[in-house]
Design brief:
By secondary structure, this protein is of the alpha/beta class. It folds into two domains: 1-34 and 246-275, no CATH class; 36-241, Aldehyde Dehydrogenase, Chain A, domain 2 (3-Layer(aba) Sandwich). Helix content is 29%, strand content 17%.
Amino acid sequence: MAGIAFTGSRDVGMRLYKRFTSEQPYPKPIVLEMGSKNPTIVTAKADLDKAVEGVVRAAFGYDGQKCSATSRLYIDRRIKDEFLARLIDRVEKLVVGDPRRRETFMGPVINRRAFENFKKYVADAVKAGGKILVGGKTLEEGFYAKGFYVQPTVIIGVPEDHYLWKQELFLPILLVSEFDTLEEAIAKANDTDYGLTAGIFTEDESEYELFFSKIEFGVTYVNRRGGATTGAWPGAQTFVGWKSSGATGRGVGGPYYLLNYFREQARTIVKEPKK
């Protein structure tokens, strides 16, 4: 075997990494693209319409079952109430149902295990002191009995040392906290083992430049209405994880990624001059 390229969870990826590197007779390449716990920051200088739409699409598109989904939201305390009111109103309008229908935004989650995990995570959040702002329920009657359907869910008040803030859930569950300064928000966003995607909403250039310089994530977005932490296109924007989200530091779709799969060979040819 020349090497391994893996995309999946951190737990499986790290097991592969340890086993593969220990069993080989000499070093071989292993490319790992793993999960994340992606944050979005909304400052007092944000366009709230953009921010609400970007957060909703990133957190609940594909039922949150994507490695770039927004799962942590940090809101400036000065705009928290207004932003959350708009966010709740937008989430309540999302259609959960048959994914073949144009109006449907969320279909079923992938399997029963995910369905049961959703119930567990919501219950654990409430037990820890969290308050469900919207969603939080499974849908099991009538049409919904045919699959594993859950509501898009926003929860506030879960202590930030709780496992729900640290563990990738891969479900439509968004945890919310607040902050007083942008430096505080960035520190909270960086408080994770992961480092795949992160977003910020602000119309102040100095704020997003600070975000770029301090955030510890490989893919970053400013004011992306189409998805606060999602939407990388190969060839246009590289997709690269830092820390536990990746193992090469080279982004998919970027100019250096293909080099992960090449061996270098230096060739020197010495020719004597013709007499």
